[in-house]
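Dig into my protein:

:::
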Amino acid sequence: MLKTKNIFLSYTKDQDILKGIDLDLKKGEIISILGGSGSGKTSLLRVLAGLENPYKGEIFINGSPVVSESFFVPTHKRNIGLVLQEKGLFPHLTIMQNVCFGLKGSKTEQRKLALNLLKTFKVDRYVDSYPNNLSGGEQQRVAIARAIAPKPKILLMDEPFGSLDKELRENLRNETKEILLKNQISCIMVTHEVEDADFMGNKVFTLKNGKIS
């Protein structure tokens, strides 16, 4: 589904953030990557999503190259969903409008898909509300629903359950994993929480000093 070969990324001339990253994500698989602050977790997701261009290495999606020495496929052509720590909801759009943003099809079809997802994540009562009227946990539910709505082949999640209390964390983990498995969405999640990594991942790796083990 997604494969990386020997990925190197650097923001400064003499310091590599990622050092020879090799990953192989299969269809319907969830990979958890554990790492502390500054380990390169977010940078790795940005590279996979096409927000950063590594100076060395290759990335393939469904066997087709999206990154090589002379080739780079932009973010919007990779069919990858991305959930960031900061949630990234549009504050001037309602919850329904946030989830429908960028969806194809008629407005009726868009709203039906969005409402089903919002029901799954138990935030459908907020369809006409704005993000600042929701709690942090509720906003995160909407952010995940929005990332899944376009039916990406691959979902990338950066600390998706961070800053939530224990009960909310467990509920959101359960809901997210259930919908990923049901829809056969391949996923890479990065986190510093061992419990989150173990619960979500079919495989768990550690990222430290730019290297995966």
User: Anything to note?
Assistant: The chain has six helices and eleven strands. The CA atoms of residues 5 and 44 lie 13 Å apart.
